[in-house]
Amino acid sequence: MTHHAIAIDGPAASGKSTLARALAARLGLIMVNSGAMYRAVTWKILSEKIDPKDSTAVVERLRHMEIKGGHDGLLSTITIDGQDPTPFLRDPEINANVSAISAIPQVRDRLVALQRDYLESTHVVMEGRDIGSVVFPDTPFKIYIDADPAVRSERRSEDGEVDSVEKRDAADSSRKTAPLMIADGATLLDTSKLSPEGVVDAAINILRKQGFPIPRKSPVGETRGWMRWMYWLGWMSFGAAYRTLFGLRLEGMENLITSGPVLIASNHQSFLDPPLIGNLYKDEMVFFARKTLFKGPAKWVYPQWNAVPVDQDRPDMSSMKTVIRKLREGWRVLVFPEGQRTLDGSIGEAAPGVGLIAAKAGVPIQPVRISGADLALPRGSGKVRLARIQVTVGKPIILSEAELKSYTGKEGYEALTKRIMDAIKAL
């Protein structure tokens, strides 16, 4: 099988990592951050007190260095001598020295070989400074992403990094080995005035023109088949009921992300909500349900519908880790930030857990608002009533690298939860 590589190149703070991560999520591909590999080697050299400018010493250490690349879900990982350097890769000292390490030919040869190894087993979205020119010069899918230097400097500052983009550009562009350049066949994408969502949409259009096979289904649908019969039976039955009994109306379907992992965040009005959201898609998704519902026949049926039990009264980290793992595996996952159904149709307060999940998973967030389901099947009532139901799909929230870094700790998770809930309320 031939595997495809999408090459994304560009200077510092142009938005390469944000775009690559969002594209990987949208297309269900592995995202490989080549810059993290050079930063990892820089971290190792500095941690052992070796002068990064002493290329002879660096090369000698490199000969005995065990470097392993892998992936966690859709994101690449790297270890050096069995150690994970990820928490340190954005330290100022590494920023100041990574260009010197990257300029050493033997370092680039070693890491380029590692980068190419990914394509032996999977499709990839890879970002860096020489992906289209050196790592995968023959791929037809190349994007060179750039932005005004003032914009990039501002982004760099928001990321908490103080190195000059002008100096970094000069170092990357003037090095003898694999200098930063627009590769032959690459399409230039200026991100100066685009939102993260707008950058992804523009990149998708570029890839279509370049002939990349944009999937029509999510990777879940492609790897598991169309639908398992039990899931399909529920999907068909509920879908027919929604259309005939409740006159289901859908708004904003042009905003729906149908490929790759996505965290769907919706208000919660009724037991009808999970299959209601499920009917937006033509393949499977995962949702979470109170564990008290898993009894009798439902104990067998619910897992067939990809329901995962959760303790509503005492949610714990294990449930959240399950959500994050499912997203990293490529699934779309439905969560109800409020945790329980509404009594009067209004949107209630949300727990900060959804913000934690969104920040840790780093996938696109799809806000959705349900209206009328509380009238069709009110909380505390077992009687179904005829009522018009509407589902409105909002524009996805795609978090930039700077935003992911800012949404940490309790206050950060609460802020992200509020952002998600505000997006739902605005629909």
Oligomer: single chain
What general outline do the C-alpha atoms trace?
A: elongated
- Cα-atom radius of gyration: 23 Å
Number of domains: 2
CATH T-level fold name of the largest domain? Rossmann fold
CATH architecture of the largest domain: 3-Layer(aba) Sandwich
CATH superfamily of the largest domain: P-loop containing nucleotide triphosphate hydrolases
Largest sheet: 7 strands, mixed
Distance between the termini: 43 Å
Strand composition percent: 15-25%
Q: According to CATH, what is the class of the largest domain?
A: Alpha Beta
Descriptive keywords:
427 residues, alpha/beta, Rossmann fold, Glycerol-3-phosphate (1)-acyltransferase, 2 domains, 7-stranded mixed β-sheet, 5-stranded parallel β-sheet, elongated
Overall description:
With 427 residues, the chain is an alpha/beta fold. It has 2 domains: 5-210, P-loop containing nucleotide triphosphate hydrolases (Rossmann fold); 221-425, Glycerol-3-phosphate (1)-acyltransferase (3-Layer(aba) Sandwich). Helix content is 43%, strand content 16%. The protein has 18 helices and 14 strands. Strands 8-14-13-9-12-10-11 form a 7-stranded mixed β-sheet. Strands 2-5-1-6-7 form a 5-stranded parallel β-sheet. It has a two-stranded antiparallel sheet with strand order 3-4. The longest helix is centred in the middle third of the chain and has 17 residues, at 229-245. Mean pLDDT is 83; it is low at 216-225.
